[in-house]
C-alpha cells in the first residue's frame, strides 16, 4: 500500500493516531476477519433463534433481512464518518465496539428469546427479536469496510484498486466465516461460546489501531468476565443437554407424563417434543407412534420397513418388538442423534436396524427398497414436515420404493379445520395423486377439529388391500373410528410447496 498521504480535495485528518502508523496488511487483515465475523454472527443467530422460533423460512427471512438492512445502514454511517474524520483510533473504536455489542447479544439473548411467540405472529415476532438482538452489532460491523477504505486511500491514482481489494478481502473473510462456523465452530463450541469468541477476536483487532492500548485490553477483560458470568449462570435443573449439532440445536429435558412417570424429552423447536423415552421402559410415550402399529392390520408379516426421521429411535424398537422377523432401515439426517438417543432415549444397537445419515428425499431418490411399509416421521425445527418430503414427486419416489401391496404411514401435524388445515388438505391431495386409497386419522379423537394436533395419514399402494373393520382391530379401534373426510385440494410439487405458510392457514 502506498504512503498514507492525504489527497487534495478528499478530506481532512482529525487528531488521533495518524493513519500512516498502521500498515496496509494489518488494515486488510482487520477487514478480512470482520467479514468472517459478520457471517459467523448471522449463522450463530439462526441457532439462537431455533429453539424458540424455529429455523423455518420465516425466521431465516427475518434474520437475513435484518442483518442486511443493518449492514447497509452501517455502510452509510461508516462512509459519512470516514469523510468527517480519518484516524485509526476511530477505526479501532469501530472494531472494539462491534465486539462488545456481539458479547452483549450473547448476554441478553436468553431473556429476549424468552418473551414467547404470540399466536399467529411468527413473522412479526421473529422480525422484532432479530432487530433487538442482531441489528446493533451488525450496524457497527457495517461501518468497518467503508472506514477502512477511506483510511487506506492514499491517492486517487490507486483508489479503484484499493476499493476493489477491500471488497475482495471482506468477501473472502465472509466465505471463511461461513464455512468455518457451519462446518466446524458451531458444532464444536456451541452458539453462546462462539459468540464470545468472535467478540473477543473483534476486540483484539482494535489493538494495532488504538493509541491507548489499555482500552481494547480492558474491553477484552469485559468480554472474558461476561463469558465467565454466562457460564456460571444456573441452568434449569431439568435441562440434561443443550448442544449444537451439525443440523440443529438440541435440548434434552427431564419431565413427567400425565401419570407422573419420569421421562426424557428432546426439544429442538418452539413447541412440542421431537422424541421421548421413559427412564425404565421402552414403552412408547407418544400416541402418534402407537398409531403406526396399524400397519399390522394391513400386512400380516411386514419383512422390510423404512423409517424416515429417526429422532430418538423409539419406533424401531417398538416395531421390531411386534415384528421380530422384520428389518428396518432408518434415515436420520443428523448423525449426532445416534449418540444422543443412546445416552438419553434407550437406543441400542440392533443388527436388524441399518441407519443412514442423509436427507430422506435424497435417500428416496436413490430408488431404495422394495419395502413392505414406509413410515414418514420427519420434522424440521419449525414443527413442519420438510417440504421436499411432502410433494407429489416425493410421493412417487415413496411408491416406487414399495412392494405392490405396500403401505405408507405418515405422522403429520396440523388440524382438520382451522389453522393448519390448508397443509393437511394439500398433503392429502398430493398423496391421492399417487396412491389409490388415502385415509387420515385423528391420533387423539378427544381433541377439537380446530386444534393443532397429530394426524396419521395412511396410503395403500394397492386398491384391493382390505380395510379392516373396527371390530377387528381391538385396542386400535379408536384410530379407525376417527377416519376424517378431507376434501381434495391442489397437490404440492417440488416447484411450489409453501409448507410453513400452509401450516398457519385455515
Architecture overview:
It is a single chain. By secondary structure, this protein is of the alpha/beta class. The protein is built from 15 helices and eleven strands. The N and C termini lie far apart (62 Å). It folds into two domains: 19-232, Growth Hormone, Chain: A; 282-502, Vaccinia Virus protein VP39 (Rossmann fold, 3-Layer(aba) Sandwich), CATH 3.40.50. The relative contact order is 0.09. Helix content is 47%, strand content 14%. The chain has helices spanning 24-53, 57-84, 88-113, 122-151, 159-189, 191-205, 214-232, 287-290, 314-322, 336-344, 360-365, 392-400, 421-432, 477-481, 499-502, and strands spanning 239-244, 249-256, 262-267, 275-278, 304-308, 327-331, 353-356, 371-376, 402-414, 437-442, 453-460. The strands form two sheets. Strands 7-6-5-8-9-11-10 form a seven-stranded mixed β-sheet. It is elongated, with a radius of gyration of 28 Å.
Give short descriptive properties of this protein.
Growth Hormone, Chain: A; 4-stranded antiparallel beta sheet; 2 domains; 11 strands; 47% helix; elongated; 7-stranded mixed beta sheet; alpha/beta; Rossmann fold; 506 residues
Number of domains: 2
Give me the CATH superfamily of the largest domain. Answer: Vaccinia Virus protein VP39
CATH class term of the largest domain = Alpha Beta
Instruction: Specify the structural class.
Output: alpha/beta
Number of strands: 11
What is the CATH architecture assignment of the largest domain?
3-Layer(aba) Sandwich
Amino acid at each position: 500500500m502506498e504512503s498514507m498521504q492525504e489527497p487534495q480535495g478528499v478530506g481532512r485528518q482529525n487528531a488521533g493516531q495518524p493513519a500512516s502508523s498502521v500498515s496496509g496488511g494489518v488494515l486488510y487483515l482487520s477487514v478480512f476477519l470482520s467479514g468472517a465475523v459478520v457471517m459467523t454472527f448471522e449463522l450463530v443467530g439462526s441457532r439462537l433463534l431455533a429453539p424458540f422460533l424455529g429455523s423455518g423460512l420465516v425466521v431465516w427471512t427475518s434474520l437475513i433481512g435484518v442483518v442486511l438492512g443493518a449492514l447497509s445502514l452501517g455502510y452509510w454511517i461508516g462512509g459519512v464518518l470516514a469523510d468527517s474524520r480519518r484516524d485509526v483510533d476511530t477505526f479501532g473504536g469501530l472494531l472494539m465496539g462491534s465486539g462488545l455489542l456481539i458479547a452483549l447479544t450473547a448476554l441478553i439473548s436468553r431473556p429476549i428469546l424468552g418473551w414467547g411467540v404470540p399466536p399467529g405472529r411468527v413473522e412479526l415476532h421473529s422480525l422484532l427479536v432479530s432487530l433487538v438482538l442482531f441489528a446493533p452489532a451488525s450496524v457497527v460491523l457495517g461501518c468497518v469496510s467503508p472506514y477502512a477504505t477511506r483510511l487506506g486511500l492514499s491517492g486517487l491514482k490507486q483508489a479503484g484498486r484499493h476499493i476493489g481489494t477491500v471488497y475482495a478481502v471482506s468477501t473472502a473473510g465472509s466465505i471463511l466465516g461461513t464455512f468455518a462456523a457451519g462446518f466446524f465452530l458451531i458444532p464444536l463450541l456451541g452458539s453462546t461460546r462462539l459468540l464470545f469468541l468472535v467478540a473477543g477476536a473483534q476486540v483484539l483487532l482494535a489493538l494495532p489501531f488504538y493509541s491507548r492500548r489499555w482500552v481494547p485490553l480492558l474491553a477484552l477483560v469485559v468480554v472474558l468476565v461476561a463469558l465467565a458470568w454466562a457460564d456460571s449462570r444456573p441452568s434449569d435443573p431439568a435441562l440434561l443437554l443443550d448442544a449444537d449439532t451439525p443440523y440443529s440445536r438440541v435440548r434434552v429435558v427431564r419431565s413427567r407424563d400425565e401419570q407422573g412417570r419420569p421421562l426424557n424429552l428432546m426439544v429442538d423447536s418452539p413447541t412440542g417434543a421431537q422424541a421421548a423415552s421413559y427412564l425404565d421402559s421402552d414403552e412408547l410415550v407418544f400416541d402418534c407412534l402407537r398409531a403406526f402399529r396399524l400397519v399390522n392390520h394391513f400386512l400380516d408379516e411386514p419383512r422390510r420397513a423404512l423409517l424416515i426421521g429417526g429422532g430418538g429411535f423409539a419406533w424401531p424398537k417398538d416395531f421390531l418388538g411386534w415384528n421380530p422377523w422384520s428389518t428396518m432401515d432408518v434415515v436420520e439426517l443428523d448423525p449426532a442423534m445416534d449418540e444422543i438417543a443412546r445416552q438419553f432415549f434407550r437406543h441400542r444397537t440392533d443388527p436388524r436396524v441399518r441407519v443412514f445419515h442423509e436427507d430422506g428425499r435424497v435417500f428416496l431418490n436413490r430408488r431404495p427398497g422394495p419395502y413392505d411399509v414406509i413410515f414418514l416421521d420427519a420434522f424440521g425445527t419449525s414443527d413442519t414436515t420438510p417440504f421436499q418430503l411432502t410433494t407429489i414427486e416425493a410421493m412417487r419416489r415413496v411408491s416406487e420404493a414399495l412392494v405392490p401391496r405396500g403401505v405408507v404411514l405418515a405422522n403429520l401435524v396440523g388440524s382438520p379445520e382451522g389453522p393448519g388445515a390448508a397443509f393437511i388438505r394439500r398433503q392429502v391431495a398430493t398423496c391421492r395423486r399417487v396412491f389409490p386409497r388415502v385415509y387420515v386419522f385423528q391420533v387423539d379423537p378427544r381433541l377439537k377439529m380446530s386444534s393443532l394436533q397429530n394426524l396419521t395419514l395412511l396410503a395403500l399402494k394397492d386398491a384391493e388391500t382390505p380395510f379392516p373393520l373396527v371390530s377387528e382391530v381391538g385396542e386400535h379401534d379408536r384410530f379407525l373410528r376417527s377416519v376424517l373426510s378431507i376434501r381434495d385440494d391442489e397437490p404440492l410439487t417440488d416447484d411450489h410447496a409453501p409448507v410453513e405458510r400452509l401450516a398457519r392457514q385455515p
